[in-house]
């Protein structure tokens, strides 16, 4: 499935780091940064999360809510948030059903091996729930700047 700018963002319901079920539609009326990343506590994902944390005031000042999503469990998310003092919600998508909706669960190659995994992608969703932008070439250390650009 390919998602395009201008179409409605697929709604989903999944647990956050506390195991509470949240839906994308809960955020109607707000701009949402929905960022898919491979794994908690890995160097690139930590750099990306910390860049968003360090720029959270600029993002919220522009009306954005930040939601991170990976296939990690709520418990792993809690540890990642605590370790890096992350001020935003992380969504647990252990069965990669939300990844499938957004087309971010794909065949990847690493060191000659093929496997299914998360393609790091960020979707900017407007107040009406439409895709306003898609950032497919994420710069982990400058991600907030990409969003605000």
From TrEMBL:
UniProt keyword Cell membrane present: no
Thioredoxin domain: residues covered: 3-149
Molecular-function annotations in GO: thioredoxin peroxidase activity
InterPro entries: AhpC/TSA (IPR000866), Peroxiredoxin_AhpC-typ (IPR024706), Peroxiredoxin_BCP/PrxQ (IPR050924), Thioredoxin-like_sf (IPR036249), Thioredoxin_domain (IPR013766)
Enzyme nomenclature, EC number: 1.11.1.24
Reaction(s) catalysed by this chain's protein: a hydroperoxide + [thioredoxin]-dithiol = an alcohol + [thioredoxin]-disulfide + H2O
One Gene Ontology cellular component annotation held by this UniProt entry: cytoplasm
Subunit structure: Monomer.
NCBIfam families: PRK09437.1
Official protein name in the record: thioredoxin-dependent peroxiredoxin
